[in-house]
Amino acid sequence: MPKGQPNKKYTPEFKIKVVETMHKEKLSYSETARQFDISNHSRVASWERIYLEEGKEGFYIERRGRKSTCRPKKLKKEVEEDLISEVQRPRAENAYLKKLNALVSERVRQEKNHK
Fold first, then answer.
1. Residue 37 DSSP label
2. Which end of the chain is more exposed for a tag (fewer CB within 10 A), N or C?
3. pLDDT at residue 78 in the model
4. Residue ranges of the alpha helices (H) in 36-76?
5. Burial of 64 by CB count in 10 Å (0-12 exposed, 13-18 middle, 19+ buried)?
């Protein structure tokens, strides 16, 4: 690509058309790139990988920039609620047992004072 010329942005529909045409007509990456006026045949290869791994929906995902390594991934809502309830149950049991222990020790102390 000549210097100073911005990168071409391709629509998801165009990418799907390119990959499906390549499969139908059994074209190579280079032939497909030439036919659709794509500057680099490796771009067609990456589109095919996305198409095969994720399907058509994969082209509608924004993929610019590096992937974040420092932020943890967000969990699904059901999984997050499951984990929260899993943590809250032992906490509730501990609180219950502490109260029970306090009541028993209070009763024992009252019985000793009462005698």
1. T
2. C
3. 85
4. 41-54
5. exposed
Q: Which two tokens stand for residue 18?
A: 């390119």
Distances from the Cα of 39 to the Cα of 23, 42, 44, 58, angstroms:
19, 9, 10, 22
Show the CA angle centred on residue 46, arms to residues 40 and 52, nearest 5°: 145
52-59 long-range contacts, CB within 8 A, separation 24+: 56/12, 56/16, 59/12, 59/15, 59/16
CB 83 within 8 A of CB 72: no
Instruction: Give me 38's structure tokens.
Output: 């794509």
Identity (one letter) of the amino acid at 98?
Answer: K
Which pLDDT belongs to residue 98? 95
CA-to-CA distance for 84 and 53, rounded, in angstroms? 32
